[in-house]
Amino acid sequence: xxxxxxxxxxxxxxxxxxxxxxxxxxxxxxxxxxxxxxxxxxxxxxxxxxxxxxxxxxxxxxxxxxxxxxxxxxxxxxxxxxxxxxxxxxxxxxxxxxxxxxxxxxxxxxxxxxxxxxxxxxxxxxxxxxxxxxxxxxxxxxxxxxxxxxxxxxxxxxxxxxxxxxxxxxxxxxxxxxxxxxxxxxxxxxxxxxxxxxxxxxxxxxxxxxxxxxxxxxxxxxxxxxxxxxxxxxxxxxxxxxxxxxxxxxxxxxxxxxxxxxxxxxxxxxxxxxxxxxxxxxxxxxxxxxxxxxxxxxxxxxxxx
Length: 305
Known about the structure:
Blueprint: H1 3-11, E1 16-21, E2 33-38, H2 43-56, E3 60-63, E4 69-71, E5 76-82, E6 90-93, E7 96-100, H3 105-114, E8 117-118, H4 130-135, E9 139-140, E10 143-144, E11 149-155, E12 161-165, H5 177-181, E13 184-191, E14 193-194, H6 197-214, H7 234-240, E15 247-248, E16 251-253, E17 261-263, H8 269-287, E18 296-298
């Protein structure tokens, strides 16, 4: 066993899984195995492992619920750290809620509801975690994380812990300073407003009904597969190109919502990305619009002739 491996296993207190299939840890249910999948015991453990990987030049990535990730079929040559195993603190104080990066947005929304705070209703049905939501400025139904976050706690690429005010997070559509600077989000504080619990609950239930009616929640997916083009909607452009139901292997354009590429069963990452490439080509031919993937692909894109 290599020296760094021994140190990794010691730091992680044996919560290290080798050749772990990432299809088990992503909402697309596709992708190959990571060399090392680690569930750190706490934040210090996570930071120590990040430092270890940096010291030995080992590829390392931090992930939450895997709701916006797609791993290559060849897997990941390095260490994957799972924030849902450790960064799960969630507490409300007055009109502010602090949540660790591994807290699911659904649980964060419930915590706000319990505290009688409004502003997070839009996030209740988003399947990601706080860390991923901050990095990509997640949003739905007119709400975005940037509208309610007050400050973010991060580790920079040198391992320093920074508390970054919202005004310095440089949020934009599906991006942030954390994404561009390669920061690891450790947690975030949200500034909310006192509200009526019954009204908050009613709004959350209303949005849940809308999601069930319009989105193919019965199939694995990464939610909206493509970013929203300026002045338009990806789903509209895909529908207008006649692509609903188009399939490659186990991957298919949802017949319920054209903005979703779904895993109908047994889809490989190659199936999904080949289908996405076809969608982009045909939408470009039909409308002249160049769609951009919202899903983050870990590994190389397959080559097409």
